[in-house]
Design a protein that fits this description.
Layout: H1 21-45, H2 49-56, H3 60-67, H4 75-84, H5 89-93, E1 113-116, E2 120-124, E3 134-141, E4 146-149, E5 157-164, E6 167-171, E7 174-178, E8 183-187, E9 192-196, E10 202-209
Helix pairs in contact: 1-3
């Protein structure tokens, strides 16, 4: 279970009360969700445990234990993991409970950007705080830019539509060239890449489906 431990010793000498069964069950559920969420977020980005460890400052062994739901991470550790993913602590640990029937993602929300550099910007159009089987992205690639991805979970597929530009899709050993208005679906449980082969920015809408 997650234990939000502060760097201070208790001042009371009273024997601590055992957690109530309901509270214990809720904490165990949070811990289980955290492990699954960290593993999924890491896979989405194509990060190894070593890469997440470098980004978060949390040891590889601790991250492995968290993903296997065997760890009891402190608040500090959980916060560092959330920060590495560009999330708030609440977004990392909360369950798929929506406060409203309508969730809006504003174009100005910087936390929705998974990656942004001189060649590639990947912005998620689906809420970050939901455990889901489908994810929706807007991908912008500069000329010569590429989004290169390691295999996702077994059975994962991607669907994309080219809004602007010329695009090449690679999945395993297969490739296909697309123009504006074309759509494609391909395996994403193998190495897969999306490349801009044109002379102007390519804009792509990308859907990832986990099975």
């Amino acid at each position: 279970m997650i234990s939000y431990i502060l760097d201070a010793m208790p001042t009371s000498k009273k024997t601590p009360r055992k957690p109530k069964p309901q509270a214990k069950a809720e904490a165990e559920t949070i811990n289980e969700n955290l492990g699954k969420r960290v593993k999924k977020l890491r896979a989405d980005r194509g990060w190894s445990l070593e890469e997440l460890a470098a980004a978060s400052g949390v040891s590889r062994s601790m991250l492995s234990e968290i993903e296997r739901e065997r760890a009891n991470p402190t608040l500090s550790v959980t916060y560092r993991i959330a920060r590495a993913f560009g999330l708030s602590l609440q977004d990392l640990i909360e369950t798929a409970e929506a406060a409203s029937n309508i969730q809006v993602i504003r174009a100005t929300e910087r936390t929705q950007i998974f990656r942004s550099d001189k060649q590639c910007q990947l912005r998620t159009l689906s809420p970050l705080n939901l455990e889901k089987d489908v994810e929706f992205y807007e991908l912008t690639l500069k000329p010569g830019g590429a989004l290169r991805s390691q295999p996702h979970f077994e059975g994962t597929r991607e669907f994309l539509t080219v809004e602007e530009g010329l695009v090449r899709v690679e999945s395993g050993n297969e490739t296909n060239d697309l123009v504006k208005g074309d759509s494609a679906t391909y395996r994403a449980d193998v190495i897969h890449n999306i490349l801009n082969t044109g002379e102007v920015d390519a804009v792509i809408f990308l859907v990832v489906i986990y099975r």
